[in-house]
């Protein structure tokens, strides 16, 4: 539902296949492009390695999902990325790692 490579807001739900980067590879790219935020163990970086496809403004809070057999799992939540998302073939999107918050999610759900 976020912005596209032309920076228009999409009227339809879009998806893109992305590749997950290691924390060190992600930080190397972020530093190279003077992005002050650094990826930590609580984050995961991803983008389409060759097409530049990525999450963009308006996608925050959306899922980063992986498929295992017939099941889909949310592994990340869109957080931030490069200013030219969708056009950058280098800067990955940064997502909050869901697995680092499962205990909090479980406790919060149990208390409602």
Automatic annotation (TrEMBL):
Cell compartment(s), UniProt: Secreted
Keywords, alphabetical: Disulfide bond, Hydrolase, Protease, Secreted, Serine protease
Coiled-coil segments on the chain, per record: none
Domain of life: Eukaryota
Any matching Pfam family: Trypsin
Gene3D superfamilies recorded: Trypsin-like serine proteases (2.40.10.10)
Family: Belongs to the peptidase S1 family. CLIP subfamily.
This protein's name: Uncharacterized protein
């Amino acid at each position: 539902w976020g912005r596209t490579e032309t920076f228009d807001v999409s009227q339809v739900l879009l998806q893109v296949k992305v590749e997950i980067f290691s924390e060190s590879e992600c930080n190397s790219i972020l530093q190279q492009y003077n992005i002050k935020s650094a990826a930590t163990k609580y984050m995961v970086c991803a983008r389409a390695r060759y097409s530049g496809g990525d999450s963009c403004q308006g996608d925050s809070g959306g899922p980063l999902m992986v498929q295992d057999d017939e099941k889909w799992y949310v592994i990340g939540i869109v957080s931030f990325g490069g200013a030219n998302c969708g056009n950058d073939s280098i800067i990955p999107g940064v997502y909050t790692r869901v697995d680092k918050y499962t205990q909090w999610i479980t406790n919060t759900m149990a208390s409602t």
